[in-house]
């Protein structure tokens, strides 16, 4: 959740990869393949050319003005991470020492490896001489503005590839894109393979984007702005504060170059950057991390992942695809125990390769052959011939834990992968490559009535520099139902943003760690229940590595139950105080108990629909709970709460049906204190019972950390634990602890199965309002007035003000509430005068208002008093929550949160345009932004968001993906003809693929005969024993236990081997989640059962028709008729614990066919069919299926299957059911 100081996590693009010819090498082409003809140069206007010539005449550097000496080649070689003995010779040609230098960083751009990097520029590399208009080294024009570094390298005997990283910046962008002023960086290789260009970059490059502060702060390029960057730039230029500015320079992400060299020979690399057209508007290139290796590590996710199983593709032809933005090279992995990367190498001759890792497994990860789930410290694989070239492949899985001892305070550690090549004849060699191991991203989820700023206290986990932190922000809708789309998607959007940022830094990552506070924990569990939570993009493991639940009421909280009870009774009263209660809650803390479309407080009730619908959460979890508030005195305990929450409690004490009409002393016993009516003697944290925070985990478990509410530490109560130092330290310990250890339970049970803990005799039902309530509902007469201060009084942020309130026109207040936005004071006895503290964040103006409550509970409101906030504090910097922004795809939205740091040390929210903040986007074809800072994705790409307030401005990069912004249920059930989680017995013919989580028994059989000849991977998979007699397997067979087969089993186009390529546990979880979510869809089709036995289904929707059908409809049925449009999907939700299908036919009309029919049985534990034919796919993940004397034309996904029914291949069409 760091602001923009979080450095850009770039998207790396490799230029070349495996697949080069074997040694002895054939030279790579020295001339490029025929390309699309270049566009003609864009013609500049006479005005633009004249201005450029004018500034060129003023930018010529004077000889002798710079006294520094040129950087030495030894320093450059060290910066490029070249080890001693590798460099045969080197030379640097530079017009000026300021045009080439070695530095520990370039602004916020850090070295890729080592402690320094090498920079070359067409002008001065410092912010004193900005790159626009730039520096023209003599002679005038482009001739003097060229830097060349030439280095000849001795290639080690064990390496046949060289890689390096570079990043290009230019002030020529955007106005001179496509013109003659196209500054260029080029890298050429010269050796026995020929002379070839291995890298180039310019403002015309497809990977060139607008610069931003997050990507290039401190380089000088980030300070170049213009009101119209594509127009004519005049120097010097000044812009009024009300004018929005745009970036006037560009940058590439770090790009990794990978090219072939000859083992044991020499190669020369020539790096060159030059001005074109003239010598002004400078460009620069950063070069770092030259390495030698024969191993290449790439991220197979998602383009080399099989959609249904989430396993890496086994096709060698696909595994040799060149690295690119689709299959990016990898320099680091997140320690989530799930991430897999492909390690590959090209060798000269047939043989074997032993891949191994430094240290032990799984502490440093694990290696295994492609197509297996076994991981160890080493694996030996045979080479594979692909296109006349020998290759070897292995999968490396990241370690399950970052801290293996001694890394508690580290951000990264490393592992070395090695490949020992043993040819069938001749001498082999060993090559190595080093990977960084990183902590998974950390995602924070705030509570109800809260925001991401609640995590920002100095003692909170959000300030730790150990983590790349992102906050899931739903603050603007945090009073609304947790089912609201904006709330529902806050966490998955934050997770995708966190993963994207880490991947853009050339790291492979699959999962995040989540710390969720209060209602944020329920949002997290709700997300884990999504049907697409486990998908191929996360290897069917889900997006969350571990969950730290922070005071989350997993079974609900009785406080919410009673708040809802109070609200509903007040709303039912025709002359009651509800409108005033609602206003009093909204002013200091923006709390609402009555949001159109549903309120969060309803979801937090004990036994709410949302809570009861949560399923078992299969994510390692630790529970941090709060306790000890029950014996504390009411008044001092209430004082611990934030002002707005104190108002909420006071209003509940006054207007709850069990309090109204009672004395003040009795009302104050409702919630807090040792005599609490609400909590009785049950431990609680002031808001939620301790038992509810344990999520059904047994008291005393190591997976529970209890904290006690202490009057001496206000940050120990429910609403502020996220900024308590003790909680922070415990969270750090947990993030440094083994995720599979005793501090984490593997799952949280369904809330509906957890017994309620409530020692109170009352509050177990919702009794009707008592007559006493009617007596106090009489409208109040009179009012209260603020007698001091006077309207227009000048106050200062954080200052104090004496406020006096008095009853008027006969009203006699017993309690007075004084409030403004962000602050409130409660006076429970007269005289009603207090010292009121002005919020430190206040700016401009405030409105002061008072509410009075008399002894009968009648409530009145004063006239508002305007105050003027005067402050000499000046805005010094702007920070954006989470730094760079990420949008899933076109139509996706994100509201930016902008904080301003002022000279008085206070950080204020300045997101609103009323605070003077202006927003713009550099490329509206990528994203747009509204005046209030709401970003909307338009198309895939990257753009820069500028944020300006007065003379202070900053910028971030927004990345837009290509996903649909809609919430979708992805249906991908076309991969397997039969997939069962347990046993498959008595089978004989399956035309497509077959998988069973336990044992498979087949006799006189055929499996996979109708599969395409190229689709042979995992055609037959048994998690346990595979027993085969007399048959054919038309593809690869894999088993996890034993193989028992006779001599009459044949594999015409595959092999049989022991391996476990499918994680059946995860697949089962995904199938059950999908079935449950499909079962919850509202029906939009008509289902009828005719007296003559016809089950008639009619749908008209062109995309998806959902039918609700009782299982009993099929008992004695004579026909199943489905009428729906062509290419639509029919989801037939069959209700009941058991279903029987026998001896009736199918009829289709309207265009639909079996490719669009899905029988979903979410509740069935038994499914029986005989003498029957299913036309469509059956999803019954909880059911044991008995099926003989028939067939299915589609797929069956079930718990188990016994019988001789034939599986005919007819794949279910992939469909996304979206909002």
TrEMBL record:
Residues 21-37 have a biased composition (Pro residues). GO terms for molecular function: hydrolase activity, acting on ester bonds. It comes from the Bacteria. Residues 19-40 are annotated as: Disordered. Residues 973-1205 form the Choice-of-anchor A domain. PROSITE patterns: PROKAR_LIPOPROTEIN. Pfam families: Big_2, pAdhesive_15, PGAP1. Gene3D superfamilies: 2.60.40.1080, alpha/beta hydrolase (3.40.50.1820). Residues 482-562 form the GPI inositol-deacylase PGAP1-like alpha/beta domain. This is Choice-of-anchor A family protein. It comes from Corallococcus exiguus.
């Amino acid at each position: 959740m760091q602001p923009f100081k979080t450095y850009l996590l770039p998207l790396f693009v490799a230029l070349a990869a495996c697949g080069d010819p074997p040694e002895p090498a054939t030279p790579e082409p020295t001339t490029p393949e025929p390309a699309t003809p270049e566009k003609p140069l864009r013609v500049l206007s006479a005005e633009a050319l004249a201005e450029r010539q004018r500034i060129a005449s003023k930018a010529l550097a004077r000889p002798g003005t710079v006294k520094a000496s040129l950087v030495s080649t030894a320093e450059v070689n060290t910066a490029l991470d070249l080890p001693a003995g590798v460099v045969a010779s080197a030379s640097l040609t530079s017009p000026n020492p300021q045009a080439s230098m070695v530095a520990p960083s370039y602004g916020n751009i850090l070295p890729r490896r080592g402690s320094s990097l090498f920079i070359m520029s067409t002008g001065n590399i410092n912010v004193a001489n900005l790159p626009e208009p730039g520096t023209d080294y003599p002679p005038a024009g482009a001739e003097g503005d060229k830097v060349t570094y030439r280095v000849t390298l001795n290639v080690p005997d064990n390496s046949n590839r060289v890689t390096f990283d570079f990043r290009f910046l230019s002030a020529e962008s955007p106005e001179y894109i496509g013109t003659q002023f196209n500054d260029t960086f080029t890298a050429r290789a010269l050796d026995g393979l020929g002379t070839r260009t291995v890298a180039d970059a310019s403002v015309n490059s497809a990977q060139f984007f607008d610069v931003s502060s997050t990507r290039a702060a401190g380089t000088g390029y980030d300070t170049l702005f213009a009101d119209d960057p594509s127009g004519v730039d005049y120097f010097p230029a000044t812009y009024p504060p009300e004018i929005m500015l745009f970036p006037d320079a560009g940058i590439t992400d770090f790009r990794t170059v990978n090219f072939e060299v000859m083992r044991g020979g020499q190669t020369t690399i020539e790096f060159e950057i030059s001005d074109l057209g003239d010598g002004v508007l400078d460009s620069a290139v950063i070069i770092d991390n030259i390495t030698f290796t024969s191993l290449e590590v790439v991220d197979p996710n998602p383009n080399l992942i099989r959609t249904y199983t989430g396993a890496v593709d086994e096709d060698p032809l696909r595994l040799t695809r060149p690295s690119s933005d689709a299959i990016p090279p990898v320099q680091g992995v997140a320690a989530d125990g799930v991430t897999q990367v492909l390690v590959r190498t090209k060798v000269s001759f047939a043989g074997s390769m032993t891949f191994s890792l430094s240290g032990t497994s799984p502490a440093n990860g694990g290696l295994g052959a492609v197509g297996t789930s076994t991981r160890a410290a080493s694996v030996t694989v045979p080479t594979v011939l692909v296109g006349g070239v020998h290759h070897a492949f292995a999968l490396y899985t990241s370690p399950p834990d970052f801290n293996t001892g001694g890394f508690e305070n580290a951000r990264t550690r490393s592992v070395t992968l090695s490949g020992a090549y043993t040819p069938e004849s001749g001498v082999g060699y060993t090559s190595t490559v080093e990977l960084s191991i990183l902590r998974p991203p950390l995602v924070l989820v705030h509570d109800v009535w809260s925001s991401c700023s609640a995590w920002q206290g100095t003692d909170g986990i959000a300030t730790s520099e150990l983590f790349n932190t992102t906050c899931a922000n739903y603050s603007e809708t945090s009073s609304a139902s947790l089912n609201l789309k904006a709330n529902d998607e806050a966490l998955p959007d934050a997770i995708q943003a966190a993963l994207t940022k880490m991947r853009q830094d050339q790291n492979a990552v699959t999962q995040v760690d989540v710390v969720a506070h209060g209602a944020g924990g329920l949002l997290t569990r709700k997300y884990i229940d999504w049907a697409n939570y486990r998908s191929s993009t996360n290897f069917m493991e889900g997006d969350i590595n571990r969950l730290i639940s922070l005071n989350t009421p997993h079974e609900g909280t009785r406080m919410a139950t009673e708040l809802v009870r109070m609200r509903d009774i007040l709303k039912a009263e025709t002359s009651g105080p509800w409108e005033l209660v609602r206003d009093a809650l909204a002013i200091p803390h923006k709390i609402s108990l009555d949001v159109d479309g549903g309120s969060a407080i309803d979801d937090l009730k004990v036994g709410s629909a949302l809570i009861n619908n949560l399923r078992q959460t299969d994510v390692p979890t630790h529970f941090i709970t709060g306790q000890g508030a029950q014996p504390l005195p009411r008044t001092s305990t209430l004082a611990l709460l934030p002002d707005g929450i104190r108002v909420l409690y006071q209003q509940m004490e006054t207007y709850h049906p069990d309090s109204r009409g009672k004395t003040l002393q009795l009302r104050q016993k409702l919630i807090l204190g040792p005599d609490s009516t609400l909590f009785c003697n049950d431990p609680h944290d002031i808001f939620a019972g301790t038992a509810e925070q344990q999520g059904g985990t047994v008291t005393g478990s190591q997976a529970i950390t209890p904290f006690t509410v202490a009057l001496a530490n206000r940050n120990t109560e429910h609403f502020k634990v996220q900024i308590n130092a003790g909680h922070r330290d415990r969270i750090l310990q947990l993030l440094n602890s083994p995720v599979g250890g005793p501090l984490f339970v593997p799952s949280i049970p369904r809330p509906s199965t957890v017994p309620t803990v409530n020692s109170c005799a009352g509050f177990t039902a919702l009794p009707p309002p008592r007559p006493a309530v009617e007596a106090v509902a009489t409208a109040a007469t009179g009012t209260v007035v603020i007698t001091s201060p006077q309207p227009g009084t000048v106050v200062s942020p954080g200052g104090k003000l004496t406020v006096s309130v008095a009853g008027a026109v006969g009203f006699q207040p017993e309690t007075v509430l004084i409030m403004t936005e962000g602050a409130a004071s409660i006076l429970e006895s007269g005289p009603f005068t207090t010292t009121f503290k002005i919020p430190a964040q206040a700016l401009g103006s405030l409105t002061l208002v008072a509410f009075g409550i008399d002894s009968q509970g009648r409530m009145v409101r004063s006239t508002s008093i305007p105050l003027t906030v005067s402050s000499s504090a000046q805005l010094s910097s702007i920070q954006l929550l989470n730094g760079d922004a990420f949008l899933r795809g076109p139509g996706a939205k994100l509201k930016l949160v902008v904080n301003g740091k002022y000279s008085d040390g206070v950080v204020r929210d300045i997101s609103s345009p009323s605070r003077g903040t202006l927003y713009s986007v550099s490329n509206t074809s990528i994203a747009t932004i509204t005046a209030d800072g709401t970003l909307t994705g338009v198309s895939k790409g990257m753009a820069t968001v500028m944020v300006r307030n007065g003379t202070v401005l900053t910028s971030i990069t927004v990345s837009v993906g290509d996903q649909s912004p809609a919430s979708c249920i992805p249906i991908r059930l076309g991969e397997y003809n039969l997939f069962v989680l347990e046993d498959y017995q008595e089978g004989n013919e399956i035309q497509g693929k077959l998988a069973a989580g336990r044992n498979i028994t087949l006799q006189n059989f055929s499996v996979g005969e109708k599969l395409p000849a190229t689709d042979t991977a995992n055609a037959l998979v048994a998690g346990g024993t595979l027993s085969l007699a007399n048959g054919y397997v038309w593809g690869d067979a894999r088993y996890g236990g034993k193989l028992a087969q006779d001599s009459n089993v044949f594999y015409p186009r595959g092999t049989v081997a022991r391996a476990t390529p499918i994680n059946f546990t995860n697949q089962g979880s995904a199938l059950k989640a999908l079935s449950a979510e499909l079962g919850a869809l509202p029906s939009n089709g008509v289902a009828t059962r005719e007296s003559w036995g016809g089950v008639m289904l009619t749908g008209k929707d062109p995309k998806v028709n959902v039918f609700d059908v009782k299982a009993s409809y099929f008992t004695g049925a004579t026909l199943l008729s489905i009428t729906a449009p062509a290419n639509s999907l029919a989801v037939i939700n069959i209700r009941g614990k058991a279903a029987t299908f026998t001896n009736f036919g199918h009829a289709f009309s309207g265009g639909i066919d079996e490719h669009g029919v899905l029988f979903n049985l979410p509740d069935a534990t038994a499914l029986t069919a005989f003498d029957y034919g299913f036309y469509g796919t059956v999803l019954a993940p909880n059911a044991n299926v008995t099926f003989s004397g028939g067939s299915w034309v589609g797929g069956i996904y079930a718990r188990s299957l016994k019988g001789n029914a034939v599986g005919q291949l007819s794949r279910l069409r992939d469909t996304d059911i979206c909002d």
